[in-house]
Amino acid sequence: MKIVVDAFGGDNAPQAIVDGAVAAVAAREGLEVVLTGDSEKLNALLEGRSRNITVLHAPDVITNDDAPTSAVKKKTRSSMVVGLDALASDDSVSAMVSAGSTGALLTGGFMKLGRIKGISRPAMAPMLPSLSSQGVVLCDCGANADCKPVNLLHFAIMGTTFYTAMTGKENPAVALLNNGTEEHKGNELTKQAYELLKQSGLNFIGNVEARDLITGAADVIVADGFSGNVALKSCEGTALSMFSLIKKGINEGGLKAKIGALLLKPVFRKIKKVMDYGENGGACFLGINKVLIKAHGSASAKSVCAAVLQAAQLAEAGITDKIREGVAGFVSETAE
Amino acid sequence: MKIVVDAFGGDNAPQAIVDGAVAAVAAREGLEVVLTGDSEKLNALLEGRSRNITVLHAPDVITNDDAPTSAVKKKTRSSMVVGLDALASDDSVSAMVSAGSTGALLTGGFMKLGRIKGISRPAMAPMLPSLSSQGVVLCDCGANADCKPVNLLHFAIMGTTFYTAMTGKENPAVALLNNGTEEHKGNELTKQAYELLKQSGLNFIGNVEARDLITGAADVIVADGFSGNVALKSCEGTALSMFSLIKKGINEGGLKAKIGALLLKPVFRKIKKVMDYGENGGACFLGINKVLIKAHGSASAKSVCAAVLQAAQLAEAGITDKIREGVAGFVSETAE
What we know:
Two copies of one chain form a homodimer.
Chain A lengths: L1 E5 L8 H13 L4 E6 L1 H8 L6 E5 L10 H7 L4 H11 L3 E6 L3 H12 L9 E6 L7 E4 L9 H19 L6 E4 L10 H11 L5 E5 L11 E3 L2 H28 L1 H10 L1 H10 L8 E4 L4 E4 L6 H16 L2 H16 L2
Parallel strand pairs in A: 1-2, 1-4, 2-3, 4-11, 6-9, 7-8, 7-9
Antiparallel strand pairs in A: 5-6, 5-10, 10-11
Helix pairs in contact in A: 1-11, 3-5, 4-5, 6-7, 6-12, 8-9
């Protein structure tokens, strides 16, 4: 199993990316990683740790300031595009991971790999932490700002496949992100999507509100990319803000608070682990012809490692073929 | 200043409503409260505490299970409708507070009080806690699931007026809830709304992401009611989940954790105060011809008191007239 990793994407590149790749090959037997980026710098960082790791030279870098489409077209020697080209042209490469510009990765992934037949809109889906389950897949979390009802049906099919590939659970519970739980609730989009989902044959359990994203009320939560993005960033932002409030309170609370914090350290550590949005790997770009994972822009070595292992797991599970099969039954009725 | 309070709306009615009303009249000189609901029950609860409080008999109750429009039309003797009728017909009544069904209150408020000329869509706006400012107004948080760009402009005007009335700060910073901070980001709705807001003459500072709802990056955040609802419930849900994780961790952490929790009690209490979505009163239904406040369904006596005092403050500030003036400049160009 060979996986390409964009070694120059993200805030902590290349150090965290290299460390994450080294950890991933150590953790999984038979895994090979191809790092893309400046070969001199990468070889220096790999010094003595290059077992099962090769380097593909790419002198250029796409940044978040680059306009996605023109960057993918013009920066052909960037670590991201060299990686995408390898993924698209080399049959021995099963998947790719990048912590770089989301827009460029979406554009590039779509352009270079093409979409699965029947899926009108590929989507971004992270596996999010939840309180009471193995995690929640949110699909779409930001690839499609404007959606039609049929897109949400496809997101449900892809999210279901993704969830099963990650957790082994067949027929996961799918819910629609809405502004109320009752069937008649919603905007024009969700009202129509509700009807499609009800008739889909998926394990559709109805509407959930945004507060259920974290409680684990459903395994797969379907949303248009705008609302999904709002939900994701609200949860993440609130969790981070609460951690910083606790930290501030402890710092300003004198000796008593500091001793209290010390005694509660195991509790805080556990909560941080539950609420860690990097712990479960990255967001999968579902609906294109190979496995492509977007790691968090501020991914640490640990989350890069998780994302690489996740990519391997998804490739091994044959998620692309499974989405192709899953959508095939719907194509004739619903494709645009 | 006379304020009507629906004494039979919300999970903790009538006890918490009566206690909140009693606390409010004690806290503000010259405030009178009219409680609507079963007079026998209310008089029993008020026993000896009825200074500046009168009761308006209403034997019926609208519940969350009632369909909003038909409930408002048919349950004419319900505590909510009797209150709305008093607000609409009695010039001496300045405002109303209810913790009852949001849908019924929106429908009833709109039907009985009418909308301000030039405002096509009234909106719900809570004052949310934030880390670095006096709070954030989110407008709309759920009244309008589908919006046009001009609605968002009106939300910005109303939100600005609301913020100033609540905090005294003139010209508060207005931002648009979006899926990225760059100007070109967004869905069709936010891209067009951005242009209107840029030319509005308001203190428009651009896009914010959902994670900034809590950081206080803007004073007023404008959103369609669907996304606003998603953002609000995500933040609230995450905060509640984290509190329950902390509680669970302490309960399961043995003596050490319990001592730690005791030492950190002042820190936790402070955080709970910052993150308390009831602390700042209720959500204001902006754009109708009188002040109408929706308190949280699970409002405690403390939040009912806060909502009543907020209603008094908004009525005293003449918010309805100010919104009328604020929108007047835009009416000819932008009204539907």
